[in-house]
Structures
1.
Amino acid sequence: MSELAGNSIKSRVEKSPSLRKLYNNIMKDLEEVEQELRLFSRSPNKLISDISTYLFQTNGKRIRPALLLLCSKLLGYKGKEHILMSTLVEAIHTASLIHDDIIDNSKIRRGRESIHARWGPNITVLLGDYLYIKALGLSLQSKHRQIIQILTSISARMVEGELTEYYVSGNLGLAEKDYLDIINKKTASLFSASCRIGGILGKASKEEENYLAEYGANLGMSFQIIDDLLDFTGDEKTLGKPILCDLSEGRITLPLIYTLNNDGRENKKRVIELLKQKNQDKQSLEEILKIVKSNGALDYTHKKAEEFSHKSIEIISQFPKSTQQEALSLLSEFILKRRN
Ligand code: FPP
Ligand code: MG
């Protein structure tokens, strides 16, 4: 109980000045979402309840629920369905992460042992399936058939993105547009859906709904590009996960795509040579990092994230000024500056 209390969403937000500013007006709703996530974790099956409780106690930023809450309130929504729907997008996100950690062989998530490192891959696959199916089952409570359709279709898109990313891992000829398509599917689709669902709850017009979805998609693109950048530049302790994982697992992300397309012949040759080694040691990864740092790839990657982030701000500024509109715009800036 004390661990739970110390790790409440309120205390997590209070520790971060930027999140405090962003979440100021939705704190009460976010606390209700946390409560709903705790109910979601309950099960007569001890294994399910133990793992789910471990999962939802973590210090996640709850960006997707926050987006859904803010977008619904932006449109003046006064009902209660936004709490359950925000819980479901977080549950789908969590299910996807625990599967992703198996695929990526990531032993640490949010500063603690990942689920598969602690309980093994078989239990983790089944728990991810359980969470995902439970979330979709609960979505049937929605009055809006369209929301159920969105949640099922974007889940399929997320799987497609993750599948393609895995399939092309190690492909050193991956084009930037194919990388962008992968992250659009695996990450931006859930951001976009969270915003669209908020809009639907708030009875947005079709045009407003599409704007919100576009805003979310651009934000999601920026989020994932920064995530991939942090794999090169981040601090493991702050990130709560190891760095240089994409490289060691053969995942081709934007800094590497830029390097392979723009660095000089010698560096490119050396990077390819190092990447083709089986089980690169720390020294090889550091050498690639040094090359990536030297050729402008990191600046280029950050600029790409800025482009998406600015686009999202441009879209959200079309809505009348309000505290929610301001928070959504600040969220786009926060994502660019984040360190974890
Ligand atoms: C994290 O990417 C992974 C995702 C954003 C999506 C993962 C999607 C699936 C596993 C498909 C299954 C989906 C459902 C709905 C069950 P990352 O590895 O770049 O981020 P990380 O560094 O935080 O691990
Ligand atoms: Mg991963």
2.
Amino acid sequence: MNAVKPMVLVTGGAGYIGSHTLIALAEANYDFIVYDNLCNSSKESLNRVEKIIGKSIKFQEGDIRDADCLERLFTTYNIDSVIHFAGLKAVGESVEKPIEYFDNNVNGTLVLLSVMKKYNCKQIVFSSSATVYGDPATTPIKEDFPLSATNPYGRSKLFIEEILRDVFVSDNEFKIVLLRYFNPVGSHSSGTIGEDPNGIPNNLMPFIAQTAVGKRECLSVFGGDYDTKDGTGVRDYIHVVDLALGHVKALDYFTSETSISPDETRVPFPKTNPLTVNLGTGNGYSVLDMLKAFERASEKKVAYKIVPRRAGDIAKCFADPSYAKKMLDWEAKKSIDEMCEDSWRWQENNPDGYQNPT
Ligand code: NAD
Ligand code: WQD
């Protein structure tokens, strides 16, 4: 059996991606503590992760903007690295509440970084997003493409990336990985944890799932006239379990001096910038591809209608994931069918998400 590794602080660990990452961490024998203010999640997700991993989870309820509460954690535990998921993520809401978004996401990250520095914890994996590429001129998207943002949520990610680049330059002891997620979907194969959006889902997959289970009547497909194979938007959907494994690879990276790709010549880590990688599959699927795949997985008909484009949407967004393979020896393995089957298992077993647990 492997020796237990040092403690990882997981901010936002009760949320959708965080809860799946806890399982990957436990399987890789990382010890961790979850810090979350539960503003967009429920403690029930952690209860369910405990059942999956077969052990109890250390959890502290708190806000990343609360320096005193964070400091108490750093004095109690020997925290050696941080995976920083905590943040608000609804694009539309960010347009209505930019101050709240910048305060929560940007200010929260600054408080976290100050406390980390004070306690000499200098390893952080940050949840960035493909949204920082704005509307890319071409696809697939590589990490050195120009960056831009079209809404306050996206700008908060861009600002945090910039802050982390400056922190990296200012202190050569800092090790930083920026993970740019494409479109996370799916659930753990147990069907006991998953994405649990508040109210009407903004994202495609939960909307399709809720339509299949009978909670919504009809999917509105935003735009049928894009320059794509069937006129609907194309995205790089990635199974959340694959995504979770990317975080373990990022932590492993902290303990090695070169890339962990086993095959070719080992590549030294970048010296001038944080390691920045896309986490996507490299495949672009349209809205209608996803709908058909979900119908196959659920054996349900999903009613849809084509409606005008959604403001701010782009035609195509999918990753070139080769740098993640080279630097982290990570690649997505799960198919679109597994994404839909797992998402359906969660939705069918938990039509009300974490409410009314059975
Ligand atoms: P989520 O809302 O399910 O999880 C975020 C967690 O952070 C929640 O549990 C919430 O309660 C917590 N949180 C928010 N603000 C906090 C604060 N101030 N203090 C403490 N906890 C706080 O979202 P998710 O889908 O799991 O996303 C995780 C991260 O990944 C976010 O930073 C998000 O922006 C980023 N991301 C998500 C997607 C996506 O499509 N889901 C894509 C790219 C990037
Ligand atoms: C996917 C496709 C829609 C809903 C968003 C954020 C991004 C990132 C991931 C955090 C698009 C279409 C959707 C619906 C539809 N989050 N669609 N009907 O827009 O690629 O990315 O989530 O970082 O920042 O912007 O994801 O799931 O909303 O949309 O037709 O009811 O599905 O037009 O083509 P998106 P999405």
